[in-house]
Amino acid sequence: MAFLDKVKNLLAKNADKVDTAIDKAGDIVDKKTQGKYAQQVDKVQNAAKKAVHDNSSQTGEVPPTQQSGQVPPPQPPPGTPPQPQPPTAPPTS
């Protein structure tokens, strides 16, 4: 199992604790900057929480044809016939 997969699994198991840590980190930044960047900090906090929850909803298992961290190719809707691939032209020099 790759390191990133282990981190995702750990985050998924402890999502509530991670949310609390994200809130505390944002509070520290707000305190240090005297609230000057509060809106930006809130956006980052929300994005971080969303990323944690999105990753925790996934199983963390990677299909055998896909490497860890790689985006899976788009799949056609069920019942759609496979589309033929255009031929590739040989390189010209």
Can you tell me about this structure?
The protein has 93 residues and is mainly alpha-helical. The protein has a domain at 3-57. The chain contains three helices and no strands. The chain has helices at residues 3-13, 15-32, 38-57. α1 (3-13) packs across α3. 3% of the residues are buried. The model has no long low-confidence stretch (mean pLDDT 78).
Using brief descriptors, characterize the structure shown:
93 residues, 3 helices, 53% helix, elongated
Give the helix/strand layout.
Layout (H helix, E strand, L loop, with lengths): L2 H11 L1 H18 L5 H20 L36
Helix pairs in contact: 1-3, 2-3
Quick description:
By secondary structure, the protein is an all-alpha fold. The chain is 53% helix and 0% strand.
Number of helices: 3
Please report which band the strand proportion falls in: under 5%, 5-15%, 15-25%, 25-35%, 35-45% or over 45%: under 5%
Q: Could you give the count of β-strands?
A: 0
What is the share of helical residues?
Answer: 40-55%
Give the C-alpha Rg: 21 Å
What is the rounded distance between the termini?
44 Å
What number is the mean pLDDT?
A: 78
- Overall, the morphology is elongated
Task: Sketch the major β-sheet.
Answer: none
Q: What is the N-to-C order of secondary-structure elements (H for helix, E for strand)? A: HHH
Structural class category:
mainly alpha
Unreliable segments of 5+ consecutive residues: none
